[in-house]
Amino acid sequence: xxxxxxFPSHSVIEKGQTVTLRCDPISGHDNLYWYRxxxxxxxxxLLHFVKESKxxxxxxxxxxxxxxxxxxxxxxxxxxxxxLEDSGVYFCASSLRRSSYNEQFFGPxxxxxxx
Amino acid sequence: xxxVEQDPGPFNVPEGATVAFNCTYSNSASQSFFWxxxxxxxxxxxxxxxxxxxxxxxxxxxxxxxxxxxxxxxxRDSKLSDSATYLCVVNRGxxxxxxxxxxxxxxxxxxxx
Lengths: 115, 113
What we know:
The structure holds two protein chains of two kinds. By secondary structure, chain A is mainly β. Chain A has strands at 5-7, 10-13, 19-24, 31-37, 43-50, 53-56, 65-68, 75-79, 88-95, 105-106, 110-114. Chain B has strands spanning 4-6, 11-14, 19-25, 33-38, 44-50, 55-57, 60-65, 70-75, 84-91, 101-103, 107-112.
């Protein structure tokens, strides 16, 4: 079974540009999560989709970040315009159910560098 | 105060040693608790869930003390392959935020021959 995949693996952009990250969850997983790790900090939650609906977006830092999951399959996270502090590793995770002990499987991450 | 606190280490131990990691969390509403393992420049992977009664998986034992809001992980007979960063993780616990995981910064373990 294929795991969670993310694209691109690395992205280097200049401040003010736009970047779109993509996540393909494990097939059949309704729950999809985005997390971010900024250098030197812990991994932080951004948001949670259940199918195509946003269940919890309390971790989104500001309105420069837009996440979508049209059709309830893959998800995109767009940063527009990117700022220096957006640099970090963006992880996507998926889980089969929403129950509290349901394992979240993480993708390999997208390493974003904003210059 | 950080929501999940861990000793960052590094813990440098010889093969065969027993090592213990501790973690405290601040959100009393948290309902589920985990240890994840993260290798250098890789994604976190679930090592084990932590239940109130404590649980064991081979060389790994996890304990939870809800009253003290404290979680521990014990690794016995350390192997070279155990070298990694161990992340203490709890869920936010309130209503629709069950999937919202809160991570500690991690404890780095290095097992030497």
